[in-house]
Write a structure and sequence with these properties.
Blueprint: E1 5-8, H1 14-26, E2 29-32, H2 46-58, E3 76-82, H3 90-98, E4 105-112, H4 120-127, E5 132-133, E6 137-140, H5 141-146, H6 149-158
Parallel strand pairs: 1-2, 1-3, 3-4, 4-5, 4-6
Bound molecules: flavin mononucleotide.
Flavin mononucleotide (FMN) binds at residues 10-16, 49-50, 53, 82-86, 111-115, 141, 144.
């Protein structure tokens, strides 16, 4: 099998935690979606982040990505993110606008505090109709923080990727 890529966006580190476990279990390369303007990762400032995220959502913003991600070099790409306001952070739209996933396999995963995947896996398929989107893994924040290696292992096995 060709090498896979794990791409993730994370502010508080929980989606990052999942991404690292997936990369370790599959031998995939790992890369972060880095925003040009960083988000405040201090959890005491949650209200400000919530307000900013809501503004971005309501204005259909496309926050810029600082780094180039070599999506073209991979056939299978895991894409991970937190739920923000019942969908994915708007920077994920920037990401899906920017890269061509035709003929590629996308495997989504996300962290949340109750919303599950919030329909985002379907949104990804709509944004990337020429990609194959496999069953994703939503994980509650605390489990992701703890690093639920077993749940990730089980999911990868079910997908036939382990
Ligand atoms: C701005 C903001 C909005 C959020 N909105 C939701 C939501 O709509 N549904 C939900 O289940 N969790 C929501 N959460 C909780 C996050 O999904 C959760 O904290 C996640 O684990 C953060 O991922 P990260 O550590 O990778 O940044 C929100 C968190 C933030 C900061």
């Amino acid at each position: 099998m060709s090498k896979s890529l794990v791409v993730y966006f994370s502010v508080y580190g929980t989606a990052k935690n999942m991404a690292e476990i997936i990369a370790k279990q599959t031998g995939a390369d790992l890369v972060e979606i880095e925003p040009l303007v960083p988000y405040d990762s201090n959890r005491d400032h949650y209200n400000q982040l919530a307000k900013l995220a809501k503004q971005e959502h309501d204005s259909n913003a496309r926050p810029a990505i600082k780094n180039e991600i070599s999506v073209q070099d991979y056939d299978t790409i895991f894409v991970g993110y937190p739920m923000w306001w019942y969908t994915f952070p708007m920077i994920l739209y920037t990401f899906f606008d920017k890269y061509d996933f035709s003929g590629k396999t996308i495997i989504p995963f996300n962290t949340h505090m109750g919303s599950g995947d919030g329909g985002t896996y379907r949104t990804i398929q709509q944004l990337e109709p020429k990609a194959r989107v496999l069953d994703g893994l939503p994980m509650e924040m605390r489990s992701a923080e703890r690093g639920d290696v077993k749940a990730i292992s089980k999911w990868l096995e079910k997908l036939g990727l382990k």
